[in-house]
Amino acid sequence: MSKCVKCGEVVPTQVPEAMFCVHCGRPVGQKCPYCGNQYVALLQDDGRVEKGCRSCGQFFKFCRACGRLHRITHDRCATPGCGQPLYESSTAFPFTFGPLNGTRTCVIQGPVIGDLHLCRHADSDYFELPNILLEQSVYRYGRLYSFSSEAMHCLIWNGHGWEPHGRPVPFGATALGRVRSVLLEDQIASLTCQAAFQLINVGDDVCNFDPEPGESRPHRQAAGAHRLVWLYKSGRLQWRLTHQLTQTHDFKLPFSGHEVNDLVADTQIYLAAQTGLWRLDPVDNTLARLDDENEAISWQRMAVIDGTVVAMGHTRNHVGTVLRQYTGDDQPLSFPLREICHDFCWTGAQLFLITENTVIPFSTQSWTPTADPIQTSATAHSISGAICLQGTDTARLVLRRRADATMVYELFHAPTATCRQIGMPVNAHPHFVLAEDRLVLVYPEHTAPDTRRTRIRTFRTEGSL
Ligand SMILES: [Zn+2]
Ligand SMILES: [Zn+2]
Ligand SMILES: [Zn+2]
Questions:
Q1: pLDDT one-digit tens code per residue, 21-43
Q2: pTM here?
Q3: How far is the CA of 3 from the centre of ligand 1 (A)?
Q4: Which residue ranges form the domains of the chain, and what is each CATH number?
Q5: Nearby residues for ligand 3 (ion, Cβ within 5 Å)
Q6: Using CA atoms, how far apart are residues 228 and 144, in angstroms rounded to an integer?
């Protein structure tokens, strides 16, 4: 059964493999864009989009305007006169460094009304993998890809809980060390590990790439406009940046020694460092300084939406925070805050500033705080890792990691500013994945000197499913 993208009517079951809507005549089905054999309905009758082909196993992107399904490598709809951007059924959610543009905001396909509830399925309350430490995960193409320092594990949701899908894919002989972040774009997973970067093709032909560059210490990664960006230290002081997947360009940064605190990318690449804010144009490889070099600000975080940059820094004497917005060639807007902010989430219209004991709602239109700070019940983790969930309703959920490991995340429901805790007593720091309407907490645990395991807990938003 399928549903018409245009008029919303359900196509009757008497018409199996219907290509056109019996009500309005628009397309409701097509052949798989890879194998050309398998019939695929553009929209299921419950309104969901098919993630991949049941026959050849390849993944799709879809057009929200006309519903047409495309190969994953396409960016724009191929329907004549449409040309709209294409979407996947979920967005990459590499938690350690937040979403790819640094906004720490993830869009959920549906409302985020109510609070988060633990999934009611008894068998999903705990999913346990003995002898495996899963250090990073990302949900893409309808699967949960999780990575230990030795292998990639793929899990699928069977309607009640997670189950392994296929065998783990080992990384080979190279010792990678701890996996710090993962990005999954265009079927290629990029891992930043302690000792090396690693690329893995997660498509049908799973294969490993040699980690590169050799003698270096990986620091951070970002992705934007089909460009993967790796930041690493080569030697003791020198920072280098590598970008592009196919045509690698290696770039030596003109500062040394100081910490680079953040790296984000869209069509340009941005760096927040202790000594300044920088923008690199990856086409002609020119580096420009955004801030004034006489300012005594240690830049901590930045985010970019369509070329507009929001940056956050601490004054060098650690008495306050400076917020700044750069839009094209206009004069930057600045806002000083007395508090030390650890992190922020940016939804476009609103910033949520995370301080040690509060969350401050801040308007990016008027460039002022919009409400009194929301007091929190416990201190925030200084490496904040806040995340905002933006649904199709007006509510926003801000999740904030707590300093005490007993309860790991706290949840704010904006605009009502109610607060509630999720999590549980753990002796490990989980990472966090958004899997459609489910939130997944993955806890790697060293339970005893020689025992290790990973536990997975799944939450969902009320009103979904
Ligand atoms: Zn129709
Ligand atoms: Zn196919
Ligand atoms: Zn289209």
A1: 988 999 999 999 999 999 999 98
A2: 0.81
A3: 8
A4: 1-89 (no CATH), 95-461 (2.130.10.10)
A5: 63, 65-66, 77, 79, 82, 84
A6: 21
